[in-house]
Amino acid sequence: MFQHNQQNYEGVSFGSQDLRYGELTGCTFVRCSFAHGSLEEIASVKCRFVGCDFRGAALNGSVHTESAFENCNFDGADLFVSKFDRCKMMGSTFSGATLDGISILQGDWSYTNLRQAKLAKQDLRGIKFYEADLSGAQLTKADLRDCDLSMASLAKADLQGADARGAKMDGVDFKQFAVTGLRMDHEQAVLFSLSHGAKVG
Asked: What's the pLDDT tens digit per position in 132-141?
């Protein structure tokens, strides 16, 4: 089993290795490639991945706790029933990734590319999505309470039945998506009205 503690790697390609069920603690990976690799049920704790390539990798069932994935590429990766607990994902991209059953507990997902991500019915409470690209994302019946969606792009996102009460939505263009069925609080309703030219107060 691939098991490492407090190791540092830079520019290493792991794509051809079988990393399934591996355990990583306190490791750092800089510009490493895991593209198309087998990382099923791998576990990382307080690891840091910077500019790493996970394109097409199998990460289904993986569990990550307080790890950072900064500016990483998960395009086409399989993240089925994976878990990210208090992780930092800033600047990472997930185009075409399988996110069914993913669990995201808190964490910072600012500046991520989650275009057309399938996140329906997901519990996303308290997650920071500052300036994230959620264009076309499926967020039907998602729990977005207390999220930070400031400056996020929600163009053509499906928020039918979602709950956004308490979420920060400063700078969000409410004209870009349908709000039918979206649960909002008073402050968000004011922002919605202002974005449509209403004069409040």
From this structure: 999 999 999 9
Burial of 3 (0-12, 13-18, 19+ CB in 10 A): exposed
> What's the CA gap between 186 and 41, in Å, rounded?
42
Q: CB of 194 within 8 A of CB of 173?
A: no
For 153, list phi and psi in degrees, rounded to 5. Answer: -95, 120
Closest CA to 49 of 37, 32, 61, 66: 32
3-state helix, strand, coil in the chain (%, to 5): 5, 25, 65
Could you report the per-residue pLDDT of 9-18, keeping only the tens digit for each? 999 999 778 8
pLDDT per position as a tens digit, 109-124: 999 999 999 999 999 9
Q: Which structure tokens are listed for 15?
A: 């794509």
The residue written with tokens 């930070």 in the block is 148
Mean pLDDT of the chain: 92
The CA–CA distances, whole Å, from 108 to 8, 33, 119 equal 23, 23, 16
In the three-class reduction of DSSP (H, G, I as helix; E, B as strand; rest coil), residue 70 is classed as strand
First to last CA, the chain: 63
Distance CA 88, CA 47 (A): 10
